[in-house]
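tool=predict chain=A
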Amino acid sequence: MFDKISFIGAGSMAESIIAGLLNKEFIQKERIFVTNKDNEERLDGLKKRYNIYGTMNKEEVIMGADTIILSTKPYDLQEAVQSIKAYVQPNQLIISVIAGISTDYIASLFDQDVPVIRAMPNTSATIGHSATAVTKGKYATDDHLEKANALFTAIGTATTVAEKDMHIVTGISGSGPAYIYYLVEAMEKAAIESGLDQKTAKALITQTVVGAGEMLQQVKEPVEELRENITSPKGTTEAGIKTLDKYDFHQTIIECVKSARDRSIELGKE
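tool=predict ok
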């Protein structure tokens, strides 16, 4: 299904996908090509780390690729497409993992009816646990969507959504790992300030997060019930939850997600 996958943009998301695909043995390393705007040092680093093919020669990267993954920063997209569109053919699938940018706009940059799939993975792709949302543009077929789903399923889960929902998806699963890491940072700091060594704190907190995630996946109870099951009256958990409520933790998280969603909308307009 995938003979050659080419990445336009070599940032953290591109690397996470590359690492995940190789870790899962989804495609041979010789079939992955990557280029970027002008950072040859970054390309050299990826080449050494993963034994993939990195070059500033855009024609070499694009020619023969069945799938082209756009993974630039939003403000670099126009220049990136301009540098490759002369080599792109209508039968090549374009997958964008760029936040905020619509499939219609991306297709318009190529000046031809190219099939565009828009996806929002996250950096957990590195270890095969990304939660990826996928939507198709007007020139993409169900076969193109199936192909994209196969790629992202190899590095986690893939869920098809309406394009209008991609902004909120960006705020939830695209940026979501960072919120979890931020919470863990605070928990580690509290543990260390209370006298626990950093190694022990990290081990306990990490397993706590993993265990909570597994509970969410495996049990049928609503998340509110899972929380209430731990929160005994006048107990330690209740004391912690009351402090979170005091500082309006629940509303803070809601506003956090909305802010990420709104920024995704802004990026699309910019």
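The first strand starts at residue 5 and ends at 8. The beta strands are 5-8, 32-35, 53-54, 67-70, 93-96, 116-120, 130-136, 156-160.
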